[in-house]
């Protein structure tokens, strides 16, 4: 048992090194072809060397696309394929395209698969290419190698990051939605509690949702811009274009002139929207003071302005402190735990385990 644990620990360390080291992969191509597997430690590199695609391991292993620059890769991840189906360190994942054009991640010696694209009943000629836009595209090819049609693309399945050319909105025909979904934690890529996308109430504005509640609004789109003076999206590196017809309603990010070559707009696990600079941050208002488009949470009287106190971050283990209580729940984030604490007048501290909420209660606080 100890030997097995040691092997897993060593493999965990090696996977982390593979992810954090400068790339020395033997793959110097942007294309994955049929009969070829992309293994752990191998990468696709876009033609202009702007983006890389490969497996990265931090808390678990994921198929990732990240910006090819000198900053830490964790900060530059723009897309995660299997965010809700992480792969263990010793499962040795491989990305492949089969004879029918199905794009899959196989692991555990081929006993388990994660399907990115499936739907062909006949054999076809296919390949997948990582573009300089950051889009990973699976294509059916003609016999001469030209592109016949696009079968699947990562831009249709965004995670927490918007790149130029990506959309936020809905396809009216297929009902597919395009939106950003935050991570659950700093290094937990699973879906978190914040969504950035088109207002579900059918207004022509962008919103951040916390679970199902509106957390922030951009203001309505009017005459080529958001008309709310509080909207900070006008300061972002994205110039948004808006379309609404019988096929789709969507906003598309278009790169502004005189901005970084490939800007990105991302929402983090705390609901902060940024493009390398903070654009929207409602956490600083602690739900008590709506500003810059933030929508306050309804709270009990004990948390009103006259009774309000802010939380101060601390780190460490507090399990032995009197008043500790653990609230279990599925996929609870730090913001979920904060809300639970704010709604309990006797709660004086909270934390998150990304599954439940340790809360600390005080008998000295009056409950109303």
Automatic annotation (TrEMBL):
* Domain Bulb-type lectin: start-end pairs: 29-151
Provide an example Pfam family for this protein.
PAN_2
* Signal peptide feature range: 1-25
- Which PROSITE patterns does this chain map to? BULB_LECTIN, PAN
Read off the Gene3D superfamilies from this record.
Answer: Bulb-type lectin domain (2.90.10.10)
Domain (Apple) ranges: 302-368
InterPro entries per the record?
Answer: Bulb-type_lectin_dom, Bulb-type_lectin_dom_sf, Pan_app
Q: Which UniProt keywords apply?
A: Disulfide bond, Glycoprotein, Signal
**Record's protein name:** Bulb-type lectin domain-containing protein
> What organism does this protein naturally occur in?
Fagus sylvatica (Beechnut)
């Amino acid at each position: 048992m100890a030997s097995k644990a040691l092997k897993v620990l060593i493999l965990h360390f090696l996977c982390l090194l593979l992810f954090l080291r400068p790339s020395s992969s033997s793959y110097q191509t942007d294309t994955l072809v049929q009969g070829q597997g992309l293994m752990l430690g191998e990468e696709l590199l876009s033609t202009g060397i702007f983006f890389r695609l490969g497996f990265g391991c931090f808390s678990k292993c994921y198929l990732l696309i990240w910006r090819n620059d000198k900053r830490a890769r964790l900060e530059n991840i723009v897309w995660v394929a299997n965010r809700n189906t992480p792969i263990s360190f010793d499962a040795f994942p491989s990305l492949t395209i089969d004879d029918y054009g199905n794009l899959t991640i196989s692991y555990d010696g081929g006993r388990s698969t994660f399907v990115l694209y499936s739907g062909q009943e006949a054999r076809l000629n296919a390949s997948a290419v990582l573009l300089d836009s950051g889009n990973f595209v699976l294509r059916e090819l003609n016999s001469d190698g030209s592109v016949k049609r696009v079968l699947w693309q990562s831009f249709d399945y965004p995670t927490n990051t918007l790149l130029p050319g990506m959309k936020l909105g809905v396809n009216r025909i297929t009902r597919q939605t395009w939106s950003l979904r935050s991570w659950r934690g700093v290094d937990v890529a699973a879906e978190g509690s914040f969504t950035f996308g088109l207002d579900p109430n059918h207004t022509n504005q962008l919103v951040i949702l916390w679970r199902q509640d509106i957390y922030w609004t951009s203001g309505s789109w009017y005459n080529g811009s958001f008309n709310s003076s509080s909207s900070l999206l006008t300061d972002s590196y994205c110039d948004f274009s808006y379309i609404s017809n019988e096929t789709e309603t969507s906003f598309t990010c278009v790169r502004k002139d005189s901005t970084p070559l490939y800007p990105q707009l991302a929402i983090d696990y705390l609901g902060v929207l940024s493009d390398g600079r903070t654009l929207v941050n409602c956490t600083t208002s602690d739900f008590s003071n709506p500003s810059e488009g933030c929508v306050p949470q309804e709270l009990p009287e004990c948390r009103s302005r006259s009774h309000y106190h802010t939380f101060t971050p601390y780190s460490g283990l507090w399990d032995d402190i009197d008043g500790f209580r653990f609230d279990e729940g599925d996929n609870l984030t730090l913001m979920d735990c904060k809300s639970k604490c704010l709604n309990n007048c006797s709660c004086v501290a909270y934390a998150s385990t990304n599954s439940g909420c340790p809360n600390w209660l005080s008998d000295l606080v009056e409950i109303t």
